[in-house]
Specification:
This protein has 15 helices and 14 strands. The protein is α/β, with parallel strands linked by helices and 389 residues long. The protein folds into two domains: 158 residues, Thiamin diphosphate (ThDP)-binding fold, Pyr/PP domains (Rossmann fold), CATH 3.40.50.970; 189 residues, 3-Layer(aba) Sandwich (Rossmann fold). Strand 13, helix 13 and strand 14 form a beta-alpha-beta unit. Helix 7 runs parallel beside helix 13.
Length: 389
């Protein structure tokens, strides 16, 4: 058995200082330690896939991210691990607890099957892994192997944690409740002549500043943005549906002096609606979350979503976004993009269904887009941008 500090302090020296996860009793000492530690950042996620995306956003900014959850939630993380981290080559350290370990301590019946196949899931996803260190002497070699694998392959590395590995650590810090926004929803009706997706994205590009980072959700959002103008500050998510806001959150928290613009869709936002509760609580002042809503899954044939009967702006307000707007024109989008408001902002806008003919796909491979995006983040001068400095 080790203490949380026996692992986390050496990990910090190797650059692992950003954590996200979903609680498990095995992980309690770890999570408690990271929450209390003034030199580590921990973001609690609504589900395991969101945690992976949050840590991935931090990794893109140059920080080493760690994601922690129990193996019963492994299924929630499969999508981003395979369609975000694998194809964009975003390495994060995944600490997964081994609930239902065969021959281990008696556990609940829901962990039995997952306990038998936890290692097989890592193998199936081509993610190398080892077991979490049980003694202090094992910590350094395990961390060194993890760093070597992550740097060499550009992929996640897994650590399977067994019961009783880490000694108890009490939690002293409590999350501080934050007030809801009260009167921040603007505009009472949507206009009848709705703009197209391209109209809105063109206006976003017109008002994007030198150091702004733009995350476009999967499907037609990224393809349309790319077709209008390919830029190094734009990351086109081609998978991990619903993870754009979580990726943007991790990036915004890690780069607080840079505006981060997340371009989301109604279907994607609905898929991981819980992510908005995390964004709304963390409230990074430099994040703008824009949802363009055509009430359908456009890229898969136009199947209807439920947003004709759902008020996404009201949901954002209830989740704690301090500034929520219902945009009714492209001019309003441009106004939001031109403002210097240092406050988490949510913008919901209805758009006209339909896409341009022969909409292009990015010619670069996803990992090349990520490499270019990382290089741009490193090279961009925030002083020249003059926005949040």
């Amino acid at each position: 058995m080790i203490h949380a500090s026996d692992f986390l302090q050496p990990a910090k020296k190797l650059g692992f200082n950003f954590f996200s996860g979903v609680p498990c009793s095995y992980l309690k000492p770890f999570i408690n330690y990271t929450i209390d530690a003034p030199d580590l950042d921990y973001v609690g996620a609504a589900n395991e896939g969101d945690a992976v995306a949050i840590a991935s956003g931090a990794e893109l900014s140059g920080r080493r991210g760690v994601v922690m959850f129990q193996n019963s939630g492994f299924g929630n993380a499969v999508n981003p691990l395979t369609s975000l981290n694998a194809i964009f080559r975003i390495p994060v350290l995944a600490i997964v607890t081994w609930r239902g370990e065969p021959g281990g301590d008696p556990d609940e019946p829901q962990h039995e099957l997952m306990g038998r196949i936890t290692g097989e899931l890592f193998d199936t996803m081509r993610i190398p892994y080892t077991f979490f260190p049980e003694t202090q002497d094992e910590v350094e070699p395990v961390l060194r192997r993890a760093v070597s694998e992550m740097e060499g392959r550009g992929l996640p590395f897994g650590l399977i944690m067994t019961s009783g590995t880490v000694a108890p650590h009490p939690l002293t810090t409590k999350l501080r409740p934050k007030p809801f926004a009260t009167d921040s929803i603007r505009s009472s009706a949507f206009w009848s002549e709705m703009p197209t997706r391209a109209d809105v994205l063109q206006s976003v590009q017109r008002r994007t500043q030198y150091a702004d980072a733009v995350i476009a959700t999967t499907g037609y959002m990224g393809r349309t943005l790319y077709g209008l103008e390919d830029r190094p500050n734009q990351l086109y998510m081609v998978g991990s549906m619903g993870c754009a806001s979580s990726l943007g959150l991790g990036l915004a928290l890690s780069q607080p002096d840079r505006r981060v613009i997340v371009l989301d869709g109604d279907g994607a936002a609905l898929m991981r609606l819980g992510a908005m509760t995390t964004v709304g609580y963390e409230r990074p002042r430099n994040l703008v979350h824009i949802v363009l809503d055509n009430e359908m899954h456009a890229s898969t044939g136009g199947q209807s979503t439920t947003t004709h009967s759902v008020d996404l702006a009201a949901i954002a307000q209830a989740c704690g976004y301090p500034r929520v707007l219902k945009a009714t024109s492209v001019d309003e989008i441009e106004s939001v993009m031109s403002e210097n408001t240092e406050e988490l902002t949510f913008v919901h806008m209805k758009i006209r269904p339909g896409e341009a003919n022969n909409l292009p796909r990015p010619s670069m491979k996803p990992y090349e887009v990520a490499q270019r995006f990382r290089a741009w983040l490193q090279e961009t001068s925030l002083v020249e941008a003059g926005r949040y400095v």
